[in-house]
Amino acid sequence: MIYRISLAKANLWPIGVLSCLLNGIGASCAALIFMAGYIGHSFLHAEYQSIGQEHLNAVTLMRYAPVIDSRHRDRTRRLQAARAEQRAIWDRFPTQPDSLGLLQTLTSLAQQTSLQLRGFRPEETTTLTTHQEKNFAIRFDGNLKAFEDFLAKLKTSGLDCRVTSFDCTQPTVPSQANTSPTAPSSPDVFSIEVHLAVPYRRKTVDLDKT
Length: 210
Fold this sequence. Notes:
It is a single chain. The chain is an alpha+beta fold. Helices cover about 55% and strands about 25% of the residues. This is Pilus assembly protein, PilO. Keywords: Membrane, Transmembrane, Transmembrane helix.
C-alpha cells in the first residue's frame, strides 16, 4: 500500500513542473502586457502634450495676428516708400557724366574761394551695382582755409559728386644758390589735388533686384 502511494506521488511530478511552467509563462505575458500598456500610455501622453502645445501656439498666433498683420503692413509701406525714394534718386542721375558742366561749376567755386584751378583730368570709370561713377582729378593752388571753404561750397552746391581723396603738398621753387627745387614758394600756398567721383546711370539696371 505504501508503495502504491509513493508511485502515485511520483506520477504527479510532471504535472507540477508543467504547472510551474504555465505560471511562469502567464507571469511573463502579464509583464509584457503591462510593458506594452505603459509604452502605449507614454506615447499617448507625449502626443497629448504635443497636441496641447500646438493648440497653445495656434491660440497665441490668433491672439497676436492683428499685431503681426499691422507690422507687416507697416513694413510693406516703408519698403514701398524706400523704393519710391530710390526711384526718385535714380531719375535724377544723368545718363552720362557732364564733364563741361562739372568744370564750369568747379571753376566758379574756385573763384569764390580764391583758389587757382590748375588742372582738370578725367580718369577711369567705376562700375557699381546700380550705377557708374566717372572719376576726375582736379588740381588747385591756394591755402588750406580757401580749400576748406571750397569743400563747404561744393557740399551745398547741389552738384552730384563725392570727394574720394585729396592730397596737399607745398610746391617748391629753385633757390638762388641751387637750381634744385628745395625752397617753398610760400608757407601758405599748397598744391592741392582732389579726386571726385560723379555718378551717372547704367544703361540696364533692374532696381527691384538691387
